[in-house]
Amino acid sequence: MKHPKFIITSGGYLRLGMVTLHRDLLMAHEQCLGGGFYEFDYTANRLLLSGKSFDYGPPRWSKVDVLWVPEAYGDVPIVYRDTRGDELNLTNCFTIKYY
Predict the structure, then answer these.
(1) Cα(33)–Cα(22) distance, rounded to whole angstroms?
(2) What is the phi/psi pair of residue 62, to 5°?
(3) Using CA atoms, how far apart are residues 46 and 6, in angstroms rounded to an integer?
(4) Could you tell me where the DSSP H helices lie in the chain?
(5) Cβ within 8 Å of residue 29, ≥6 positions away
(6) Integer CA distances (angstroms), 98 to 18, 33, 56, 83, in order
(7) Phi/psi of residue 69, nearest 5 degrees
(8) From CA 6, how far away is CA 18, in angstroms rounded?
(9) Would you state the pLDDT for residue 83?
(10) What is the strand order of the sheet 78-81 is part of?
């Protein structure tokens, strides 16, 4: 069954998609720095990332220098909520570039 999942690649790319497994979001020769699930928080007008990948674990944000985000999300704040419920505003924490 497909679910809305995301990963962070070793190159700092945020990749989202409706997939069965997180590894389905990886391209050849890429490494994964963790992942989780995503949803659109329409009330707060933001992209909410949460949880962790069962295959790769939670995102290792400390390994990311520049976060590469799909251009379609250029005007949307991005927030990560960890398993404890703490939120990290990625838009404020990282240099964001778009692809």
Answers:
(1) 11
(2) -65, -15
(3) 15
(4) 90-93
(5) none
(6) 20, 19, 24, 27
(7) -120, 140
(8) 9
(9) 87
(10) 14-19, 3-9, 32-41, 46-50, 78-81, 87-89
- Rg of the chain over Cα atoms, rounded to whole angstroms, equals 12
Model confidence over 2-48: pLDDT tens digits? 999 999 999 999 999 999 999 999 999 999 999 999 999 999 999 99
Q: Contact at 8 Å (CB) between 80 and 86?
A: no
Hey, CA dihedral for 65, 15, 52, 57, is it positive or negative? Answer: negative
Distant-in-sequence, close-in-space partners of 56: CB < 8 Å, separation ≥ 6: 7, 22, 23, 32, 33, 34, 35
Cα(60)–Cα(46) distance, integer angstroms: 21
Burial 51-80 (b: 16+ CB within 10 A, else e): bbbeebebbebeebeebbbeeebeeeebbb
